[in-house]
Specification:
Layout lengths: L9 E5 L2 E14 L2 E7 L6 E3 L2 E5 L6 E8 L2 E8 L3 H4 L9 E10 L4 E4 L2 E2 L7 E4 L2 E5 L2 E6 L3 E3 L6 E3 L1 E7 L2 E9 H6 L4 E4 L2 E2 L4 E11 L2 H7 L12 E6 L2 E11 L9
Antiparallel strand pairs: 1-2, 2-3, 2-8, 4-5, 5-6, 6-7, 7-18, 7-19, 8-17, 9-10, 9-12, 11-16, 12-13, 14-15, 14-18, 16-17, 20-22, 21-22
Amino acid sequence: KGTSAEEEIIRLRVDEHSIGFQPLQMRYVDGAQSLLLSSANPVYGIGADNTYRYPGLFGLGTEMVLTYYPDSLKEEIILKDKSLLTTNNIFSSDGSVLIDYLINISANLSLSVGNTVLQPAIGEVYAFNTSSVDAGSEGLMILPQPRVFERNNNFSIMTDYLLTSTADGLVMSIRVPLSFLQAAQYPVTIDPTLDLNHTKILFDGDVLNCTGPVCASQWQREPGLLAIIVGDENNTVGDYVVRRGVIDWDISGLPKNAD
């Protein structure tokens, strides 16, 4: 949408099925304590090629970036500094920051984790890492586990979602540990990319290659074979060289709920 003031800044449609996401707010939560950091502002988007940017969506120093690909929608929520925390006098490392979205899902779709359909009652909260958007037994989209990373991708963590039923509808929240935001090098990027290709299982992990005798015995399939190095070098910790890689499996031939 041209402006975040319109409903459902993000809407995805597959045939007659659709799901929409409307950013609501960022808030700080620690147990029963909750504090609004910023409501979503009615800002105008800036489009170029396959990317749309909403600067200042959650106030100064914040930006939402949407990048469209043939099989995914990459969303990045960028925090350029800690001003949202400091201006609200949040200096501890306890609790979490939640980014809330009101979601509008068509009646013939459901959110599922494995074989479990997420249908929270009013006030009930579900926590989950990854979910699928399904039409009956057919999976249409995947919400992979959100990733949060600091400047230059020096360090990252995987986080999770919360799903709550409210009087206004379903609210999905990205939960980011405050301890990460307080210690991070800024800017920090929160990445809840949505995968439109349901025939893939995404694996995002670390492959370790090291020179110690323990590592050699773990990673070699047979004596004398060299370990396979996957991905780009990320950093070095002691004898370990940590490399990032992504492996995709095509499971289009398997039923959705197959064991």
